[in-house]
Amino acid sequence: MALYLVQHGLSLSKDQDPEQVLTETGIDEVKLIAQVAKGYQVPVGTIFHSGKKRAAQTAELFSEALQSDKNIQQIAGIKPLDDVKAFAPTLIHMDNAMYVGHLPFMEKLTSYLVAGSTDLTVFKFQNGGIVCLEQRSDSGTWCIKWTLMPHIS
Q1: Rounded CA gap, 34 and 25, in Å?
Q2: Rounded CA gap, 153 and 93, in Å?
Q3: What's the CA gap between 148 and 133, in Å, rounded?
Q4: Three-state DSSP class for residue 135
Q5: Full DSSP string of 30-97
Q6: pLDDT by residue (tens digit) across 102-112?
């Protein structure tokens, strides 16, 4: 089972826009990563997002590139400070799902799934990047299979 975790694209600050919509740079970077993923034929099923405007916009951009049916859903439990340990068990039955959310939630979820702790940082997310996790069939544990990020620094 593959799981795709995405931090929303670069967005405006709350001072600039209370809804924190994506910036032009954020839109361009998400489109770039989505096109690379499309080129690799990444098989994304449902795309879930937190409901915040920047996450919904990011989900829509990924859907335009990766899905023919545009199966996008808002989901509870993946906002910045939501409980990772409560959310993690819901992942088991959703093959090739993409979750578009926020920090620190996405980094903590990755750490919890891979290392069993939310206190570690096993991967540093970038706005608009994808982290693909794979659940090992022999042990049920998770590992980072690959990532696509807008920047290498």
Answers
A1: 14
A2: 35
A3: 12
A4: strand
A5: HHHHHHHHHHTT-----EEE-SSHHHHHHHHHHHHHH-SS--EEE-SS-STTS-HHHHGGGGTT-TTE
A6: 999 999 999 99
Tell me the pLDDT tens digit for each residue of 93-152. Answer: 677 999 999 999 999 999 999 999 999 999 999 999 999 999 988 888 899 999 999 998
Dihedral (Cα; 141, 3, 43, 126), 10-degree rounding: -130
Block residue for tokens 């959703």? 94
Domains and CATH numbers, the chain: 2-148 (3.40.50.1240)
**CB-CB contact of 145 with 132 (8 Å):** yes
Burial class of residue 137 in the structure, from the number of CB atoms within 10 Å of its CB (0-12 exposed, 13-18 middle, 19+ buried): exposed
Residue whose C-alpha is closest to residue 5's, from 52, 67, 60, 48: 48
**58: phi then psi, degrees, rounded to nearest 5:** -65, -45
